[in-house]
Please model this.
Amino acid sequence: MSGRAVIPQGSDIDPASVSIMPDGRVFQRTVHGLSEEQVGRIRAGYTCIKCYEDYIDAFPDECSVCKFPMREKQMEEFAKDFRGDIKFGPSTSLDEEREIMNEMRERAAYERALELGLTIPTPRIIVPRDA
Model:
């Protein structure tokens, strides 16, 4: 083992993939976001694809932590599970998120004003007659 920590950069639920346990329970699988270096170490057999234990030598017979047969199954699992570059987090920009938050705040203030019985003036645009 190398003693290096392999920590995913992000995690999310993969709605297109499930694991079915021997007793019939169904679980959605987790997708982990890894750096290019981390993916390279998994591909090269230096990091266990199942538990992310890191090794000094490539492709040990089995992972000493989770007992996954790395030498025999690592590349097969990598080919099956690797998704390439995917985006984590919201699909909106920071400015769009701010706009949504402002709209929610304004709507909440408007609804609170109505609950309190306040009269909300209707915005009007006044156009001069000779314009």
